[in-house]
From TrEMBL:
Catalytic activity: dihydroxyacetone + phosphoenolpyruvate = dihydroxyacetone phosphate + pyruvate
A Gene Ontology cellular-component term: cytosol
Pathway annotation from the record: Polyol metabolism; glycerol degradation
Species in which this protein is naturally found: Selenomonas caprae
Protein name per Swiss-Prot or TrEMBL: phosphoenolpyruvate--glycerone phosphotransferase
Assembly and oligomerization: Homodimer. The dihydroxyacetone kinase complex is composed of a homodimer of DhaM, a homodimer of DhaK and the subunit DhaL.
Length: 207
């Protein structure tokens, strides 16, 4: 995780590149700001991390990213993602390296924070419909006997399946819950932004 700042740049670039797509998607079931929110948040995160003296340890960097998202993004997703990054940062220790065990632990911490704050479950048509299937790939029972890259690839596929699943269900949390059944047929913006972030990280790690 020594390249965490470069990983952040890769994730931020992917979010910024998909800003309009995410915003258009949010306009179908919400208020049409998800891409703008996420792009603003990740630009702020990049600025904050740029100012850090020491970016060699993942814990403080993840916490700084989370705080930047919380403080610079209005709406639901920024503070939820922010809480997830802060909690993942707090879950880091000397043994945190890019491996299946650390990924499982950090994703679990992030999901717990998002659920504590947002009270959503799998199937509510949110970011969790992507994040929970990603996390499941890293659980010991599913990752056993596989290399890190095999697990990362499976999780990338699971992220896509999670996004597709959100198309089939009605939103029960957040703004999209106001349109309820009429959200069926549309991907959840937060589920898509989670997939974009995860896949950007995966591509970064592959190179
Ligand atoms: P807002 O809806 O306030 O405009 P955004 O458009 O930035 O905020 O984010 C919307 C996304 O936030 C949704 O697509 C969904 O994935 C996510 N979201 C909303 N409420 C919750 C919640 N309670 N738990 C988890 N994710 C949520
Ligand atoms: Mg919105
Ligand atoms: Mg909004």
């Amino acid at each position: 995780m020594t390249r965490i700042k470069d990983a952040l740049d890769a994730v931020a670039a992917a979010i910024i590149a998909q800003k309009d797509y995410l915003t258009d998607l949010d306009a179908k079931t919400g208020d049409g700001d998800h891409g703008l929110n996420m792009a603003r948040g990740f630009r702020a995160a990049q600025e904050v991390v740029e100012e850090m003296d020491d970016t060699s340890k993942p814990g403080p960097v993840l916490q700084a990213i989370g705080k930047a998202l919380i403080h610079n993004v209005g709406g639901a997703a920024g503070p939820l993602y922010g809480a997830g990054f802060v909690r993942a940062g707090e879950a880091c220790d000397e043994d945190t390296h890019m491996n299946v065990v650390s990924m499982e632990k950090l994703l679990r911490a992030a999901i717990e924070a998002i659920q504590k704050r947002g009270r959503a479950e799998k199937g509510d048509k949110t970011m969790l419909d992507t994040l929970i299937p990603i996390h499941e790939c890293f659980l010991p029972e599913n990752a056993q006997g596989k290399t890190l890259f095999e697990v990362l690839q499976e999780a990338s596929k699971a992220a896509g399946e999670g996004v597709n699943y959100t198309k089939t269900i009605a939103a029960r949390k957040g703004r999209a819950s106001l349109v309820g059944e009429r959200s069926i047929g549309f991907e959840d913006p937060g589920a898509v932004s989670s997939m974009i972030m995860y896949r950007a990280l995966y591509q970064f790690l592959k190179n």
